[in-house]
Amino acid sequence: MTQVETITSGADKAKLAAAALLVVGGLAAYFLLSAKGGLVQWSALLALLAAGVVVFFTSESGKSLIGFGRDSWREVQKVVWPTRKESLQMTGYVFAFVLVMGLFLWLTDKTLEWVLYDLILGWKR
């Protein structure tokens, strides 16, 4: 059964709301500052987005996301990656299997076509 995580702390809710407002404020600033020039627009957007990200990562949701990322990275490091030789061999096996299966399906199709149309129905093309 999947466990649903809810935000219970008022301070945590405030942090998430502040992060959302900073992101929305960054987007609004980008469009409202169009008369000031591109440098001012992009600076305001990037600064407010960065502030929103920082505030988000100080919340419990942000901290759990960071923990999830760390756990995921540890799991990726445990993966035993195949060597180049093993990769090429497996790729060759897959290509050979696809070729053999394609040939088998083509022969099956042509055999069924011959049986149905030529022998049973008597249609000569």
From TrEMBL:
<keyword id="KW-0472">Membrane</keyword>
<dbReference type="InterPro" id="IPR005807">
    <property type="entry name" value="SecE_bac"/>
</dbReference>
<dbReference type="GO" id="GO:0009306">
    <property type="term" value="P:protein secretion"/>
</dbReference>
<dbReference type="InterPro" id="IPR001901">
    <property type="entry name" value="Translocase_SecE/Sec61-g"/>
</dbReference>
<feature type="transmembrane region" description="Helical">
    <location>
        <begin position="90"/>
        <end position="108"/>
    </location>
</feature>
<dbReference type="GO" id="GO:0006605">
    <property type="term" value="P:protein targeting"/>
</dbReference>
<keyword id="KW-1003">Cell membrane</keyword>
<keyword id="KW-0812">Transmembrane</keyword>
<comment type="similarity">
    <text>Belongs to the SecE/SEC61-gamma family.</text>
</comment>
<dbReference type="GO" id="GO:0005886">
    <property type="term" value="C:plasma membrane"/>
</dbReference>
<dbReference type="GO" id="GO:0008320">
    <property type="term" value="F:protein transmembrane transporter activity"/>
</dbReference>
<feature type="transmembrane region" description="Helical">
    <location>
        <begin position="16"/>
        <end position="33"/>
    </location>
</feature>
<keyword id="KW-1133">Transmembrane helix</keyword>
<keyword id="KW-0653">Protein transport</keyword>
<dbReference type="Pfam" id="PF00584">
    <property type="entry name" value="SecE"/>
</dbReference>
<dbReference type="InterPro" id="IPR038379">
    <property type="entry name" value="SecE_sf"/>
</dbReference>
<keyword id="KW-0813">Transport</keyword>
<comment type="subunit">
    <text>Component of the Sec protein translocase complex. Heterotrimer consisting of SecY, SecE and SecG subunits. The heterotrimers can form oligomers, although 1 heterotrimer is thought to be able to translocate proteins. Interacts with the ribosome. Interacts with SecDF, and other proteins may be involved. Interacts with SecA.</text>
</comment>
<keyword id="KW-0811">Translocation</keyword>
<dbReference type="GO" id="GO:0065002">
    <property type="term" value="P:intracellular protein transmembrane transport"/>
</dbReference>
<dbReference type="GO" id="GO:0043952">
    <property type="term" value="P:protein transport by the Sec complex"/>
</dbReference>
<protein>
    <recommendedName>
        <fullName>Protein translocase subunit SecE</fullName>
    </recommendedName>
</protein>
<feature type="transmembrane region" description="Helical">
    <location>
        <begin position="39"/>
        <end position="58"/>
    </location>
</feature>
<comment type="function">
    <text>Essential subunit of the Sec protein translocation channel SecYEG. Clamps together the 2 halves of SecY. May contact the channel plug during translocation.</text>
</comment>
